[in-house]
Design brief:
This protein is an alpha/beta fold. The chain is 38% helix and 25% strand. The protein has 3 domains: 168 residues, Molybdenum Cofactor Biosythetic Enzyme, Chain A; 77 residues, Alpha-Beta Plaits (2-Layer Sandwich); 154 residues, Maf protein. It is built from 13 helices and 17 strands.
């Protein structure tokens, strides 16, 4: 394998990405896409809609990477200059391309329209490059060579960008010489362990020279881990991966909730649907986020009964049957009340699984005994009820609510799987 190897870079184009009003959503998707195919996204650069700046970035990235993927700047307006920058960087002319124009026309013909004259700009392609069909929009993509580097320029909207990765970049990747190396990937998704404690547990496994190479990302308390093993044969790569996977599960297996899906709602939803387990929710501090997460799962209507938000104590009494004396003696944010909320909801709906949340999300409302970040969870599953306490640092109301939502979902998952809740 050459020094450049399976190394890729991303160039995100657009003034809107630099002014704080939009974020680059394509590069994270690209990193996952490449990682699954044994490639490494080693650099991400964001530039504005300036032709000379884009061209200079392309030249720089092409020096060190076998593949450069550009997103954005392929629209019909005058500030869409990615195609012009491609031609400038490659030192070739920009010329009308009949195939690209036919693709633009075909898009409009679907709705019996004629493309405006401004769309002719989208049919300009650098000499020697080829247009790429975009079935989701008017802008064809572009594939061109710059010396030893392949450059793919794709439209900026994710609904167009991601399908074009699969349609055009994936076949190209499949045809590349990997230097006789075979790669195997294993993923784990964890919850309930901080990044710092995780780092202590994995120690040197994350050093750049390790094989398998380990990477980790964090979102809403979920740690997503990727192990990438490389060997001279499939057997060699798999042996390395299997050995590290065994070690990993020995240290961190208790925190792993899935090897395929990072969204706790989808994991729990799939478990509920596959087992025919009905579910209901009673929420206080999460304010309906738990029900919203579950009802975002396709097909969940088969098992989801209903969800209520009982924010006020009186609502807990009237809607869920929580005993007023329980609220007076323990307070709303307590294990006994969380259990009573879950029991009450299960009794009223007949659901197999009932999940309840009550806590102090902040920024105010905390006390020495019940600080901001304290959340109690009630879990009722087929006649058995338990409560679980979690204390998070005061990192912001929305973040605590997101963590609490994920925690409730994963407690439900553990209950359905017959695992200990704590």
């Amino acid at each position: 394998m050459t020094v450049r190897g399976c190394r890729a870079a991303a160039l995100a184009v657009g003034d809107e990405l630099l002014d704080g009003y939009r974020t680059d959503r394509n590069s994270p998707a690209l990193a996952r896409f490449l990682g699954e195919r044994g490639w490494s996204l080693e650099r991400i650069q964001v530039v504005g809609d300036e032709e000379s700046v884009i061209a200079a970035a392309l030249v720089e990235l092409a020096r060190d990477h076998a593949l450069v993927l550009v997103s954005g700047g392929l629209g019909p307006t005058l500030d869409d200059v990615t195609r012009h920058a491609l031609a400038q960087a490659a030192g070739v002319a920009l010329e009308p391309n009949p195939e690209a124009w036919a693709q633009v026309q075909a898009w409009y013909q679907r709705t019996d329209r004629t493309p405006p004259s401004s769309n002719a700009r989208q049919a300009l392609v650098p000499e020697g490059a080829r247009p790429l069909e975009n079935v989701q929009g008017t802008a064809p993509g572009i594939h061109m060579r710059m010396a030893a580097t392949d450059v793919f320029a794709l439209p900026g909207p994710p609904r167009e960008y991601e399908p074009m990765l699969e349609a055009h970049v994936a076949p190209w990747l499949a045809g590349q010489d990997d230097g006789g190396r075979v790669r195997r990937v294993q993923r784990f998704h964890l919850f309930g362990i901080s990044e710092s404690l995780f780092a202590d547990q994995v120690a040197g496994w994350m050093e750049r020279g390790c094989n398998p190479l380990m990477g980790v990302t964090a979102k809403d308390g979920v740690l997503s881990v990727r192990l990438l093993a490389e060997g001279a044969s499939e057997q060699a790569a798999q042996a390395l991966l299997t050995a590290r996977t065994t070690e990993f599960l020995g240290r961190l297996g208790e925190y792993v909730f899935s090897e395929e899906e990072s969204d706790p709602a989808r994991v729990l939803g799939a478990e509920l649907l596959s087992t025919g387990t009905s579910v209901t929710t009673a929420e206080s501090c999460t304010g309906g986020a738990l029900a919203q997460a579950l009802t975002g799962v396709a097909g969940i209507s088969e098992v989801f009964r209903e969800g209520v938000v009982t924010y006020a104590n009186q609502a807990k009494v009237e809607r869920l049957g929580v005993d007023e004396e329980l609220l007076r003696s323990h307070g709303a944010v307590s294990g006994p009340v969380a259990e009573a909320m879950a029991c009450g909801m299960a009794e009223r709906t007949g659901a197999d699984l009932a999940l309840a949340t009550t806590g102090v999300a902040g920024p105010g409302g905390g006390t020495d005994d019940k600080p901001v970040g304290l959340v109690w969870f009630g879990v009722h599953f087929r006649g058995r009820t338990a409560s679980v306490e979690r204390r998070w640092p005061p990192v912001g109301r929305e973040r605590i609510r997101r963590w609490a939502t994920a925690q409730a979902l994963l407690l439900g998952l553990r209950a359905v799987r017959g695992q200990p809740l704590d």
